[in-house]
Amino acid sequence: MVYLYLDPACAIFFKVHTGLIKLFDIPPKTVHKWRVRGVLVDEIKKIFFQLPEDSRGLYFPWFLENEHIVALAGQPLPAPSVRGVDAAVVCAWRFIGGSEADSVDEIKAVIAHKPDSEQDCHLLYSLLLSGLHPAPSLDLWVSFGFPSCRSHEEEMELARLYRNLIHTCTFKEFCDAYRTHSLPSLFNSKGLRVNNRVHFQSVLQAGWTKSVWYLKQAVAQENVTEAESNMVPAVLVDYGFGNCKIDSEKRRLWNVYRDFFDSPNGDPLALHEAALEGNIHGYVSTVVNGLQDPMFQRLMKNPYPLPEFD
Angle, nearest 10°, between helix axes 152-166 and 8-24? Predict the structure, then answer.
């Protein structure tokens, strides 16, 4: 099963939607009809503008700045049989300029023949336009820089910035920037500032992705067993999981790294440098308490630093 995170845009829209029902006694069926007819945004604005400005609530200003999101949410599905993932695929396809006459199967067939980078971008668009963003169980979580976020709230903020970005650039611009590892520059060119920019640039840098980001991806997942089975070899070697003799050792090491990334003092790039110096235990001990057990020193050993050759 693929787990996706709900974006705050949906939560705030829900509050606006609930306000319509409770404050103005508008039946849910009426709101649904507005969605289907594609007039949801206009009807909401018409109602709220009847109120004095200081009585419109905290969420209406957000609504005015993000009408495009609600407008997309209000579009009718292309066919009664199209639901869920298929609806998201169709929505993204039309958003990037695809024909409304194309069926779900035709769209999927075209996308399947595109380069992998373009397929990744289309999948991201499908999530963003559905009010979602990648979860750590998806490769896209790393590919689009979400490990740079220090909390779930920051992930949702990054998703919001991505959503703003795709409304200010063409799909080709976005795909080209993703393929050439220049998404941070594209954000900057559109006046969008990403939080924790140094880490964001590190995740998306050209060449190879630092293993610490895959470590963070692994320990961020809820399904520990599945995450362990999919752990990349570099994480096993660099961060000591290959040293674990029994499952309980693996879980204790897992929990240490999870506590590290949850701590405001846990810097992934500093952990990466400590791993290259063969000093994981020394550094992590300054962030996570309770690592006096010699077992942790044994588990956190790795082959680094590598010997120098003349």
Answer: 90
Kindly report the pTM of this predicted structure: 0.73
Q: Cα separation of 177 and 206, whole Å?
A: 11
pLDDT for residue 56 is more than 80: no
Instruction: Quickly list DSSP for 104-116.
Output: HHHHHHHHHTS-H
Locate 196 and state its tokens: 């924790």
Measure Cα distances from 101 to 95, 97, 106, 152 in Å: 13, 12, 10, 38
Please report, for the chain, the start and end positions of each structural domain, with discontinuous segments joined by +.
5-73, 84-203, 211-299
Residue partners of 65: CB distance under 8 A and separation at least 6: none
CA-wise closest residue to 230 among 243, 240, 217: 217
Of the ranges 8-17, 95-104, 229-238, which one carries the lowest mean pLDDT score?
8-17
Which own/partner contact pairs does 225-229 have at CB distance under 8 Å and 24+ positions apart?
Answer: 226/137, 227/136, 227/137, 228/254
Tens of pLDDT, residue by residue over 214-230, are: 999 999 987 777 888 88
Strands (E), the chain: 5-6, 132-133
Work out the widest C-alpha separation in the chain, in whole angstroms: 79
